[in-house]
Write a structure and sequence with these properties.
This is Chlorophyll a-b binding protein, chloroplastic. Its main location: plastid. It is found in: Plastid, Chloroplast. The chain is mainly alpha-helical. It folds into 2 domains: about 70 residues, no CATH class; about 35 residues. About 45% of the residues lie in helices and about 5% in strands. A two-stranded antiparallel sheet has the order 1-2.
Length: about 110
């Protein structure tokens, strides 16, 4: 639940950012498609080539099932990476840690 909530937050940002910012260059050089030519929102599905969508699905699948498939200590969502991937930054006191995790769930 936490992971998919965070993915949803990134998706919302990803929906808003293209309104104000576009990458320079080509999305698909072989098709002559520039990033600036891709419309915002759901209309982008019709412009991006199928191979591009397949690349994204493959990348997300690789990330989901290969890179972060392991459970370090059996606790859901704890991959032993620390905060933002920096190890050694966790709450040592069990009561404070439980309170912090519950606050994150309630957020």
């Amino acid at each position: 639940e936490i992971k998919h909530g965070r993915v949803s937050m990134f998706a919302t940002i990803g929906y808003m950012v293209p309104e104000y910012f576009k990458f320079q260059g080509y999305l698909s050089p072989s098709a002559g498609l520039k990033f600036a030519d891709v419309p915002n929102g759901l209309q982008a599905f019709t412009k991006v080539p199928a191979e591009g969508w397949l690349q994204w699905v493959a990348l997300c699948g690789l990330y989901e099932f290969v890179i972060y498939d392991k459970k370090v200590n059996g606790e859901p969502g704890n991959y032993g990476q620390g905060n933002l991937g920096w190890t050694g930054t966790s709450i040592e006191d069990p009561a404070k840690r439980t309170r912090g995790l519950n606050a994150e769930l309630a957020n």
